[in-house]
Each structure stands twice: as structure tokens, then as C-alpha cells.
Write a structure and sequence with these properties.
Strand content: under 5%
Shape: globular
Largest sheet: none
Length: 333
């Protein structure tokens, strides 16, 4: 039995490669958490700016902000301040990506959801309900355990040109599909579409940012790296537009919930399938990735259904509900 126990310990020690093989995690994780804090405050201030512009213009931006509304945003101090904070969040995120694996850094943004929920409850006066708190707990809990597993097994590999081309091709297809849906169906789309669209796009943006950083660090800046940089900038612009539109039709913590779950799920899927960052993970860890990721996504869907601000706003709509009495009929003329 002694030889068996020794073998098990050696196997486990061989598998726990994340923290020990990459001490950059000790810096990357705090940077990612700092980015989450800046993201929370930035989202709150940007949401305030979008709401103000909607009131001043007298136009609802839920189906897509107009060019005039976008121009007015840069004149709103709250929106500018929020943008600066999001800029700091991006700097922290890039710093974390430079020293830690993608599948560890990205999911930590879920901490922004907790902070944003508390901020929005204080600002809007809509206290979280039991159902919304359960949804938030699912989002954060799912991501937390996801990171706990990934931190031990995530490894970094050199990205090949073939892998880069695969990522760029997939991103191109995704952008075409999302653009098609937006162009033809935007009058019917609401916050969840823009949140999911932005999350998917930003998942690719985070991956491309990681690739560009690593290639620049290696002094390998050529046409393919330039192509990644262009795709990164275009994706950032498209995702930013979707986020601002989502703010016009949903509370900031719902937007952050979608981004901090969908974004890392897409980035992790790319990291696992294309980049091989979880090659050292055993089968039970892969199963854990799937389960915890599914729990986090379920939390976003539940939050979109039961967020107190969304429920409150829906009650303001002139819709007759089954529990309400019928209005008195008018006498015939």
C-alpha cells in the first residue's frame, strides 16, 4: 500500500502544475481582481451617462444607440469618468494576461458582479431579492470554483500561426452572424442579446490581447500579429457599442453579470480547445469546468428573469395581468 500511496502523491504533484509552474499567478490574480473593481464603478457611471443621454434626447436606445446619442455621451461627465475607470480595468486585465494563463484571469472578473450589484442597489433603490441573490450566487460561485480548478491545472503554451488563424476565422464568422442578427432583428432585441453578443466578442478580444502581448514580448511582431491587433480593436469597438446599448435596456449589474460569465466562458473555451491551456487537466477537472460553467450561465439567465429593477420596470408597463381586476366597462353611447 505504501508504494500505491506514493504513486498517487507523485501523480497528483505532477498534475498540480498551475501555481508551481507559473508563479506569475501570484501577480495576475490580484491584478485581475483590481480590474474587476474598476469595471464595477465604470459600469455604474457609464450606465448613468447613457440613461441621462436617453432622457435628454427623448429617444429610447434599447434597439441601438443612434449616432447623435453616441456623440452626446462624450459630453456627459459621468460617462467619461466611467470610461476612464473601464480603461484602468483594461490596463489591469492586460497586465494580468501578461503574467497568468487566460483561463485563470478571465473568470475572476465575476467579482465585479458582486460590487456592481451592491452599487446599483444603493443608487437605484432596488434591493436584491431572494431569487436575484440566488442567481448572483450561482454566477459568482460557478466562476469561483471554475477558477479554483483552473488555477492548479492551467498551463501556457506558445501560440502557433495555425492556432491564430483558427481564432481569427472563428471570430470573423461570429462577427458576421451577430452583425446579421443586429441588422435585421435589432428592433426586437433587448438587453440579453446585446449582453450575450458583447460577452462573446469580448471573449475573443481577451484571447487576441493575450496573443498580441505574448508575441510582442517575444519580439515576434509581423503581419499576423498586426492582423490580430486590428481584429482586437474592431472587436473592442463592436463590443463597446453593444455594452452601451445594453445599458439603455437593462441595469448595470445585469450587464456585468452577462459579461463576466459569457466573456470568460468563451475565452476559456478558446483556451482549452484551440490553445491547449488545459492539456494537463484530468478528466474530473474537465467535467468540473463544464458543471461550474453551466451553473454560472444558469445564474445569468435567472438574473435576467428575476432582477428586481427589471421586474419593477415591467410592472410600469400598461399590461393587464391575470391577478389584476378587469377595468370597468364604459356604458354604451
Amino acid at each position: 500500500m505504501t508504494w500505491y500511496a506514493t504513486g498517487v502523491v507523485e501523480d497528483v504533484s505532477d498534475q498540480l502544475v498551475g501555481v508551481f509552474q507559473n508563479p506569475g499567478l501570484l501577480l495576475g490574480i490580484p491584478l485581475a481582481l483590481a480590474g474587476a473593481v474598476f469595471m464595477s464603478f465604470g459600469a455604474q457611471y457609464q450606465h448613468r451617462g447613457v440613461a441621462k443621454v436617453e432622457r435628454l434626447s427623448g429617444q429610447d436606445g434599447a434597439s441601438g444607440l443612434t449616432g447623435t446619442q453616441l456623440k452626446r455621451l462624450i459630453t456627459r461627465p459621468s460617462w467619461v469618468l466611467g470610461t476612464l475607470m473601464l480603461g484602468l480595468a483594461i490596463i489591469c486585465q492586460l497586465g494580468a494576461l501578461a503574467v497568468a494563463p487566460l483561463i485563470v484571469v478571465q473568470p475572476l472578473g465575476a467579482m465585479a458582479l458582486v460590487i456592481t450589484t451592491l452599487l446599483n442597489a444603493r443608487v437605484s433603490g432596488h434591493a436584491p431579492t431572494r431569487k436575484s441573490l440566488t442567481a448572483i450566487a450561482a454566477c459568482v460561485g460557478g466562476i469561483f470554483f471554475f477558477v479554483a480548478v483552473a488555477a492548479f491545472f492551467a498551463t501556457e503554451n506558445d501560440v502557433t500561426e495555425r492556432q491564430l488563424l483558427i481564432i481569427l476565422v472563428i471570430l470573423s464568422v461570429v462577427m458576421v452572424v451577430i452583425g446579421f442578427l443586429w441588422f435585421f432583428l435589432r428592433k426586437r432585441m433587448r438587453a440579453l442579446f446585446y449582453i450575450l453578443g458583447a460577452g462573446v466578442i469580448y471573449g475573443f478580444v481577451a484571447t487576441l490581447a493575450k496573443v498580441v502581448i505574448k508575441r510582442v514580448q517575444a519580439g515576434d511582431f509581423e503581419w499576423l500579429t498586426l492582423g490580430c491587433l486590428v481584429a482586437l480593436l474592431l472587436g473592442t469597438a463592436a463590443g463597446a457599442y453593444f455594452v452601451q446599448t445594453a445599458y439603455s435596456s437593462g441595469p448595470p449589474d445585469l450587464v456585468i453579470a452577462g459579461l463576466t460569465v459569457v466573456d470568460p466562458m468563451v475565452a476559456v473555451l478558446i483556451g482549452v480547445v484551440v490553445l491547449g491551456e488545459a492539456a494537463a487537466a484530468p478528466l474530473w477537472a474537465v467535467i468540473g469546468f463544464v458543471i461550474f460553467g453551466a451553473v454560472a450561465v444558469w445564474g445569468v439567465i435567472q438574473l435576467a428573469r428575476f432582477h428586481p429593477q427589471i421586474v419593477s420596470d415591467s410592472k410600469d408597463l400598461p399590461i393587464l395581468r391575470g391577478s389584476e381586476p378587469l377595468p370597468p366597462s364604459e356604458p354604451p353611447v
